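Appendix B. Chain record.
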Amino acid sequence: MVALASNLESAGELALVAAVRERFAAHALYTDVCPGVVLFTNPHSWVGSAELYGSDSVRRYCAAGAAAGDDLPPHVFAIAERAYRKAALRLFALCDDEELQADQSILISGESGTGKTETLKLTIGFLAAASGASGPPGASAAGGAGHTISIAISATNPLLEAFGNARTLRNDNSSRFGKHVALSFGRRSHACALVRAELRMYMLERSRVTSPAADERSFHIFYQLLAGGRALGVGPDPGAVSEALASTLRHLFGAEADS
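Structure tokens predicted for this chain:
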């Protein structure tokens, strides 16, 4: 079974799809395309997730270091470990490689329902854990702040998803926004520790506010507010409010509401 797409006999879409399908049938959800790029196939189930994403898996990829991509199966943790290791080398000036002079970036992309939101959570959780796993013995306490930041980031998800997620034909909780999460690392107890997280950009699909497609909805927050009002005995039925909401917003904001 091929783990790295570059090992395929022929380089093409059909060969890659066949390799991904073969790995998925064998419960291998990740396929390496090239160093630093991995494909994930969403099983839409958390069965087996403890083994794939649990603390033992985190420790294996943290401990593997530079060999994570060679000695362990393809995984989002291998991508995160690669970025973390380069950030640590830059922080402690242990390498003069020009590539390390730039910030490290991880791009998570895919169609609706492919697992982007959960992948981001897993990535940040791994980076927080790696913050505590680096450095000499006794330095693991540096991961405390990183762990707290990871929890704080996860706690913001319900709010971000309320304003940015909507029901579509393919997904009842589809993320209709993009975001840029910036993580900062610093020296703490001789370790490269996660010290800050910042949401720098929130790109919203604004057209959905007033013009959702047929059989789709606008953002969850509007229905949640109306459902809350209905629970208190005020306001209309959330299920019948889409067009009324769109009409009101068009009246308030004019043509800009459709952009």
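Further analysis of this model is presented in Appendix C.
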